[in-house]
Write a structure and sequence with these properties.
Largest sheet: 8 strands, parallel, barrel
Number of helices: 4
Shape: elongated
Strand content: 35-45%
Number of strands: 31
Structural class: alpha/beta
Strand order of the largest sheet: 16-18-21-25-27-26-23-19
Distance between the termini: 85 Å
Helix content: 10-25%
Number of domains: 2
Length: 426
Amino acid sequence: MLHRIARQVAKARHSRQGSVVIMLALMLVLLIGFTALGTEVTFALFKQRQMQSAASAAALGGAAALMTGHPADPATEAHAITATAGFVHGTGGVTVTVNHPPLSGAHIGNTSAVEVIVAQSQTLLLSSLFRARSWNIAARAVATQGNNSGDCILSLDSTTAAIDALGGSAHLILNKCGMAVNGTGTKALSMTGASILTAASVSVSGLVYKYGSPVITNEAQVLKTLQPPVADPYASVQLPSSSGCKYNSLHLAHSNSGTQYLYPDGVYCQGISLTNDAVVVMAPGVYIINGGSFAVGGAVKLTGTGVTIVLTGSGGSYATATITNGANVTLTAPTTGATSGLLFFADRNSPASPGSSFIGGAAVNLTGALYFPSQNVAFLNGLTTTSTCTQLIAWQATFTGAASFNNNCATAGTGAIGTSPSQLVE
């Protein structure tokens, strides 16, 4: 009997039938463990994505606060946005760091940018078997402020050879508005001598070239290079049609009879010349000038409300505009109709040169858009417009002496140039 029991024990000891079950049990434990570990890693990745979305939204909100000034501290807006997303600074191990300007990355020191870092410690149970410390999950985003005031100067030439220039002692002041240069070259905006550019924003598709001691006021905050081109706000406006000539080389000078009048009742061929202390009033309407020049100088006093001056031509003869030599000019564009907001409208077929010029010694108050989409325009030797709304859209622009523009155009009938939202950059 004892011998039989011993044989059964020996047989069970050498049997392999139970090993498969044991191996399956061990593999099942490992499979469950790796599945759980994978779930924790997926959770960590999901949490990081949530943080990234919150950081991005907060950076954009902070940049928008910079642009509008509300709230005054961009960190206030950023913290409010992350809290809405469930990441409240100082709660549940969450930290929300807001840096203005950024303290790291490509935009370090840029006062027009806001950096937001969202972080939270996470304890992953199975992961702790391999890593004693908790996991610190974080996300970072940087956004730059947009431009809510729009531009008041736009250069449309988008070639690498395009050059918009401020030279000598030019001081270009853009009050609450910006300048956009679509040139893509290394000298798209050229500043020389002791020139100064003061603007709410400066957007250049290419780069800025400096020679001498020029200054862009608050450059770190306002200047953005390698930017996409700004669209022509008047690209869809059709040039008014015309035919024939009612007037030829019209010239008005001082008259003992006093005020003289111009009317939009026909085409002015070979230009209009106003000189020698003439006092002239332009009646409301669209003035077609075919060839020659709209030339105002010699202490002329010129006024007009609801006026659009169209500069056109054919072949090699297209009209240009010149205001100079102590002229006193107050002109306002229409606020309704097909040419709403357009004070000067140069034919898109005009050659770039010789272009049009507004020269020092003239006191001007030009309300509306000076639209020269294919012409070069020069503001020379210190010409300042006192209008609350003046836009310049030209193929290229040159400034010397002092010049100023204002963009309070809410009721002037003009189109907005280059308004842009805040944007993520990192």
